[in-house]
Amino acid sequence: MxxxxxxFASARDLAGKSRLSLSLPEGALARDAWKTPELSGLDLPGxxxxxxxxxxxxxxxxxxxxxxxxxxxxxxx
Length: 77
Known about the structure:
By secondary structure, the protein is mainly beta.
């Protein structure tokens, strides 16, 4: 199955791109995306996931075509 991953803020900066496609096995959970080489270095403290525009704890099974957003903490001044 293929999902789209949207990267924001520091995750986008670290990856050097704002989106990518991931191929995962059937039955994969949202948190399994962190185990892929494309995302393993982006697991920053405080990072949240959103699956199809809803915050996710990562325990939901993914379906082909899902959109996973990686939302690192934001700081500002």
